[in-house]
Structures are given as C-alpha cells and as structure tokens.
Design goal:
Layout: H1 2-21, H2 25-36, H3 50-54, H4 70-86, H5 100-108, H6 112-126, H7 131-148, H8 154-164, H9 169-182, E1 184-187, E2 193-196
Antiparallel strand pairs: 1-2
Helix pairs in contact: 1-4, 1-8, 2-4, 4-7, 4-8, 5-6, 5-9, 6-7
C-alpha cells in the first residue's frame, strides 16, 4: 500500500508541476475548467478528462476490473478539487505542508461559533462512506478555502484520499485530520509559525 500511495503522491506532484509551469494561459484555463466538471464523478466517466487525469499514469495503479482503483479515485479527486480551488486565482493554491486539517482549521479563525460550523462540515467529510460522498463534502470545504484564500497541499491530499479508501486506512487518516484541526499554532522567537499538538 505504501508504494502505491507514494506513486499517487508522485503522480499528482508531477501533474501539478506541469500546470504550474504552463505558459499558455488559455490552455491552462481550459484544462482546469474541464477538470472541474469531473468533481465527484467516477474516474473514467468523462472521456474528455482521460488525458488530463491519466496521461503517463503508472500501469500498476490502473484498474484491471473495470472498477476504479483507490489510486484512480485519489488522483481524480485531488486534481479535480485542485481545479476548483485554483479557479479565478492568480497564485497557486497548492502549498506544501498545508495539510487538510490545518487548512480547515484556518477557516474558523478564533471565532467559536464559526469553529463549530466548520467542524460540522469537516466531520461530515471525514465520516463519508464512499468516495462520491467524500468528494461532495470536500467540494464544499474547498469552496470555503478558496473564498478565504487559504491554500492546501494537494500532494498530501491525494495520499490521504488514497489511504482513506484502504482497510484501516480511514482511521489513520481521520486521526491525522483531527490532530491537525486541533493543533495549536504558536509563534517562535523569529515570528514563524510552529505547530504544537
């Protein structure tokens, strides 16, 4: 499982890098617009997305049964949600180290009422029973992140989405999300953020 998760992360990193280096703005916008149409859809359901999602996709991660693999769901989920987050934004919304729990926590700020509302949405996402439900809730969270200008680590998200589907993996991922959501951020002497549980 760890090898496949690493391959998912590597593939998503490569695809994000290609889009971030793309100089043809019209092509980039078209790619991202097409990807947004795939949010929550079964991987492979939209032929116009095949190249965007699966060009140079590792053979060992591909389905052989006609049912999408965990890797195909994870890649499709992370890249389509990235396209939603990136929409209308000049700066890259991918930020290494900005894990999902940390990003969602930033939505709440210091407001207790807002914290409860964000927590309800995050809980609904974290307890999803399948990938279409998971992507439905993730879409809502990322729309809030986009509105507030909060970036997200999409390589990490892809790995989380992969692991979330594996036996016993969902519990590990939920633990990390919960730890990050409730992690206290303190400033060190240089004024940099330092995470402490």
């Amino acid at each position: 499982m760890d090898d496949h998760k690493a391959m998912v992360r590597s593939y998503v990193r490569k695809r994000l890098g290609q889009w971030q280096r793309e100089t043809n703005v019209h092509l980039l916008r078209a790619d991202l617009a097409n990807l947004r149409r795939g949010i929550g859809k079964r991987p492979g359901a939209l032929p116009e997305l095949w190249g965007l999602l699966f060009r140079d996709f590792p053979e060992e991660l591909m389905s052989r049964t006609g049912e999408p693999t965990w890797a195909e769901w994870a890649v499709s989920g992370a890249l389509t949600i990235y396209a939603l987050h990136q929409q209308g934004t000049g700066e890259s919304v991918h930020a290494e180290g900005q894990r999902l729990g940390l990003a969602v926590r930033r939505l709440a700020g210091g407001d207790e009422d807002r914290l409860k509302a964000v927590q309800r949405r995050f809980n609904a996402f974290a307890t999803a029973r399948d990938m279409p439900e998971c992507m439905h809730h993730l879409r809502g969270l990322v729309q809030l992140l986009r509105r507030e200008g909060i970036p997200l680590d999409y390589v990490e998200l892809a790995g989380d989405l992969y692991e979330f589907q594996t036996p016993e993996g969902a519990d590990r991922v939920r633990l990390r999300w919960g730890q990050d959501f409730y992690r206290t951020v303190v400033r060190d002497e240089d004024g940099k953020d330092d995470d402490h549980a």
